[in-house]
Design goal:
about 25% helix, alpha+beta, about 150 residues, globular, 3-stranded antiparallel β-sheet
């Protein structure tokens, strides 16, 4: 998938979510009111979760990140931000490559989008380095940008 198309699709997702008040959404229990209106254009599959903390401090050991994929990329003693509530969207785009078996989906075009409760309207787009998966940059980039309000 070309970078321009990826950025366009991600922007469309986040702009479609902009009509949903992120702070009202994440505080609504159970399940984030308006969450069902968020769609990722072109995705073959997506699933969402309203999380009280989307950082690796809270998601390590859960299905919302893969600690094995990023464990060797961070320095010991690194103190990352914590306590960032919001909506996490996981899914995949149609593809014919099946090397990434995360979640049992068997698709290489898997994605993760984190929309913080206090979203500032900005978007940071990354790509997994080398042969790593979509969660590989969670402690290096995701924790920091969602704490600043970026999706």
């Amino acid at each position: 998938m070309h970078l321009r198309r990826t950025v366009t699709l991600l922007s469309a997702v986040l702009l479609s979510a902009a009509g949903v008040s992120a702070s009202a959404t994440a505080r609504s229990a159970p399940g984030c009111a308006g969450q069902s209106r968020i769609t990722v254009p072109g995705a073959a599959f997506q699933t969402m979760a309203c999380l009280p903390d989307m950082t690796t401090a809270a998601t390590a050991g859960t299905a919302y990140t893969d600690s094995a994929d990023w464990a060797s990329l961070t320095a010991k003693g690194t103190k990352n931000p914590t306590g960032v509530p919001g909506i996490q969207i996981d899914g995949y785009f149609p593809d014919s490559s099946h090397l990434n078996k995360t979640h049992g989906w068997n698709h290489d075009s898997q994605f993760v989008i984190r929309l913080p409760e206090r979203w500032n309207g900005g978007v940071v787009v990354t790509g997994a380095p080398g042969t790593r998966k979509q969660y590989s940059l969670d402690p290096l980039i995701s924790d920091w940008v969602i704490a600043q309000g970026y999706a």
